[in-house]
Structure formats: C-alpha cells, structure tokens
Amino acid sequence: MAFQQPDVSTIKQLLERTQTIAVVGLSPKTSRPSHQVSAAMQGFGYQITPIRPATDEVLGETCYPSLYDLPHPEKIDLVDVFRASEHVDEIVDACIALKLPTIWLQDGVINEPAAQRAQEAGITVVMNRCVYRDYMQLGINK
C-alpha cells in the first residue's frame, strides 16, 4: 500500500478535534519556522508540548528530550515534525510504540516509506503540509 495523503475534509476534522500538539524540533529561536508556527497554534488555543533535547522550556512549556520522555503520551493528539526527513523513521518508531494517533510532517519533511509504515500501524499521517497554513485556509474554529 502506498502512502495516501488525507483529503482536505479529513485534515479539517483532524485540526478541529486536536487539542494537544507535541512539536518535535521546536526551536527556542523566535526566527525559526517551528517557533513561529507553534506560537501561532498556541495562540489559537492548542496545547503545545515541545520535544527538543538540551532545552528546558520553549513558549512557556516544559521541553522533553524525546517523545519517549513524555509523562503522559496518551494526552498527545498530534505529533508535528520539524526535523529533517532522515529523522522521520525514528519519530515514526516512537509514535507507533507510544500509540500516538497522528503525525504531521511539515513542509519539506518527506519520507514516504516511514509515512506508509505509520499508516499501516493505524496512524493518520499528513506529509509535506504546514499545520498553520492549513489551519488558516480551512477556517478552523477552536
């Protein structure tokens, strides 16, 4: 089975029901896209959980070194990935192990075999799209 991107209505429903987003690769630098997108999503009412080694806090939230270090992974609705494509395999492994429901690979983050593997494990995968741009264009109301 090849990777299949969810349709726009599915993406809209996903963003409407999501409450907590773990952001893998969330930078503390305000000039970075990961920080800007996450700050905007936090402003829209989403709970942001930063995943970044060697950082204590970003956007006023406690940082965790990896998804495996989350104290309550069952509370994560969506894993938003701002890492290079070659790191997606290990992130998918963690999402499968922790039974996380959704992985969102941001613009330019493309790894079709890993995305397909995640889908085969029952995880919803959105790839090569911006969560902020989709939120704005789809008219989400949180």
Structure description:
There is one protein chain. With 142 residues, the protein is of the alpha/beta class. The chain has a single domain, classed as 3-Layer(aba) Sandwich (Rossmann fold), CATH 3.40.50.720. It is 35% helix and 18% strand. The chain has five helices and seven strands; from the N terminus they run αβαββββαβαβα. The chain has a five-stranded parallel sheet with strand order 2-1-5-6-7, sandwiched between helices. The protein has a two-stranded antiparallel sheet with strand order 3-4. The longest helix is centred in the N-terminal third of the chain and has 11 residues, at 33-43. It is globular and about 40 Å long. The N and C termini lie far apart (34 Å).
Give the topology, please.
Elements: H1 8-17, E1 20-24, H2 33-43, E2 47-51, E3 57-58, E4 61-62, E5 78-81, H3 88-98, E6 102-105, H4 112-120, E7 124-127, H5 131-138
Parallel strand pairs: 1-2, 1-5, 5-6, 6-7
Antiparallel strand pairs: 3-4
Helix pairs in contact: 1-5, 3-4
What's the CATH H-level homologous superfamily?
Answer: NAD(P)-binding Rossmann-like Domain
Whole-angstrom Rg: 14 Å
CATH topology: Rossmann fold
The main β sheet shows up as: 5 strands, parallel
- The backbone outline, from C-alpha atoms, is globular
CATH class: Alpha Beta
Name given to the CATH architecture:
3-Layer(aba) Sandwich
- Given helix and strand content, the structural type is alpha/beta
Whole-number tally of structural domains: 1
